[in-house]
Amino acid sequence: MVQKSKSKPAFTPAAVEPKRRGRPRAYEPDVALGKALDLFRKDGLAATSLDDLSAATGMNRPSLYGAFGDKRELYIKSYQRYRTDARAAMIEIFKGEIPIRERLKRIFAAALDIYLSGEFGPRGCFTVMTAASEAVADPEIRAMVLDGFSELDKAFASCFRRAREKGELPSSADPTVLAQLASATIHTIAIRARAGVPRKELETIVKGAIAMICG
Length: 215
Fold this sequence. Notes:
The structure is a single chain. By secondary structure, the protein is mostly helical. It has 9 helices and no strands. Helix 4 packs parallel to helix 7 (139-165), helix 6 (126-134) runs antiparallel to helix 7 (139-165) and helix 8 runs antiparallel to helix 9 (199-214). The longest helix is centred in the last third of the chain and has 27 residues, at 139-165.
């Protein structure tokens, strides 16, 4: 007697899991941009290679290009991120109702916190230390740098205008001129911070600048 072979179970399409298309994204764009920002801020645009960026972000070149564009585009996005972060760190100090001397003290202290930060040493200001150099040959970056200078000048001028109205400054005080002096102090401590000047010495510069500006 010949035994009948056992029939195979019927194929059921529903039992097969559908294939997933592509790989899940293995990086966080915001984190990767922060890593690129740190690198550009330390080494600048020209000295930062795609291999450096790939190593820092954990993304290969095609992924970097797909997420952020070419190196220049990534640099510009990093600069935009830097300005956004710096603005967020200072906006409440600029807008709050604080006596002008205390306001300036807090603004400069917040700036020093930014400029003296860095895993491998003080990094200074992105605008002053790297973007200003790139602005010479790149109109888009130049426009961003000039916009940053203008934004800071206007923010300081608004503070001095309010201080003059409250009688904290003499009626002859020129808010525009004082704003330019305050901005120049910001740029000075950024450069010196990057060069390794100790915070105590930078705070002495700030103290003298406040005395000169406020009289």
